[in-house]
Each structure stands twice: as structure tokens, then as C-alpha cells.
Predict the structure.
Amino acid sequence: MISERRRHPRHFLNQEAFAALGSEYSRVGKILNISLGGLAFEYIVFQEIDGDNSTVEIFLTSGEIYLNQVPCRVVSDQGIIVNHDRVRNLKRLSTRVCRIQFTSLSGTQKDEIEQFIDTYAGDA
């Protein structure tokens, strides 16, 4: 059995939530899991990615919650294999998973993330 080395347990959301990375929102996608230490999200690459990746926005499309400029750093950004055969135009797109770590959170930001997890996450 592989032991979990994470400092904070991961939580899977019971409602779709999204992350937008960087000041120019260079990566926007669906959150796969979240913890007090960071999150992972899946996104589709339409063009070359560059720019500032030191903050992330976390939100629901319903507008119920919006966490603004949460400080972070990219831990990994890996391509995943997706079968796009059904839609011809999607063959040129790349699907990726980005994992970020929250950094230098203020007390308010930490409280907001805890509230977000308590409200929108199911069992880990």
C-alpha cells in the first residue's frame, strides 16, 4: 500500500468549479481536486502558454463564490491522453492537468479556501 505524503487531504468537489491561472488567465479549466495546500485542474490548450502564473482565481459558474488572486506556484503541468477521434477539430488541441500549490496565503484567504472546501467538497 502506498502511503499518502500530502500535508493536507485532497477533496473532490460535488459541484463543478473552475480555476483561472495567471493575471491573463493563460490556463482556465475544471478543478479536479482541492486541499488547503493547493489544487489540480484540467484544461485545454488552444495556444502557447506564457505569462505570470503566480495567482489563481477559483470560481463557480453560478457566481456563488469567487476567490480572487490566491497566491500560488505551479508544481506540475502534464499532458494527458484524450481520445478526440469523435470530433475532428479537437485533434489539434492538447489536454493537460496543472497542479498548483498555494503560497503565502493570508488568514482571510485560508479561511475562504476552508469555507469553499466545507461547502462544495464531498468526501475525499
Summary: The CA atoms of residues 37 and 102 lie 6 Å apart. The chain has a mean pLDDT of 84. The chain has one helix and six strands.
